[in-house]
Amino acid sequence: MPRTSRFEGRLLIAPLTAFLIALLGFPLVLDIIYSVSRVGFENIRAPEPIGFSNYAKAVADPEFWAAAWFSLRFGLIVAVIQVVAGLMLAVFLAPLFAKRPWLIALLMLPMMVAPALVGLMYRLILHEFVGAVPYYLLEWYGDFPAFLGRDWAFTTLVTVETLQWTPFALLILHSSYAAISPDIREAAALDGARGRRLFVNIDLPLMLPALGLTFFIRFIDSFRVFDNLYTLVGPGAGGSTTSMSIYIYQAFFKVGDIGLAVAASMLLLAASFVVLWLINGLTARKAPL
């Protein structure tokens, strides 16, 4: 590439680069400073450097690891369920979407509701005293499980998250499935690949990058879940539903240990980059022609 073209390209992306540095760079530097300082609301403008004590404190805290384990389990389970469900819906509903594309917009409606509102809605529906679901289960079967209790809270959260965000996976995977050229499928059919063999050997490899992207987005979003979890059960159910985001929130606002909260958030950011690197490595292979 000529030097002039390279210079023009760098010149064109310079405003965007400067904007991103100003928007993301300053908060990141400030977070790094806070994470290695003793800082609270009383000295937030004059943090006291203490090295990596906040990181050591977070790593030595059993509640930190309990929150990390909850977020990891929740993120993996929810992401896998949503990707599998989204893939199945994208494949089986493809002929219907081709004839009635407006159905896609209809299926996207759960995503339009604020997650905090979804948590409040299901809290009312599943509440053991005023909820409609426990009432009818009690009327029909004489008993009902404590959906928001310790034993059922995790399953309830997974179900609520899946119901709201599976349409997101469906949207991406349907676009990927519909973008596969009919010529490729016709050529594979001439070679005897039909039905399941066509899907496994042709469609699925071509959709692998979209599957990896969908899994990463849904895993990260579920790993750092806060709003609907906090409004549905919060850190309740015997502390069994404390996610990393709730742990950081409690350390920041309830305990007032800003350094610990920021250090935990930096560890969360590092974990996100590790997951991105792993998924990128698994999906960055050449698709079959």
UniProtKB/TrEMBL annotation:
Belongs to the binding-protein-dependent transport system permease family. The keyword Transcription does not apply. The chain crosses the membrane at residues 12-34, 74-96, 103-125, 198-217, 258-279. SUPFAM superfamilies: MetI-like. The keyword Transport applies. Pfam families: BPD_transp_1. Keywords: Cell membrane, Membrane, Transmembrane, Transmembrane helix, Transport. It is found in: Cell membrane. This is Binding-protein-dependent transport systems inner membrane component. Residues 68-279 form the ABC transmembrane type-1 domain. GO terms for biological process: transmembrane transport. It is a multi-pass membrane protein. GO terms for cellular component: plasma membrane.
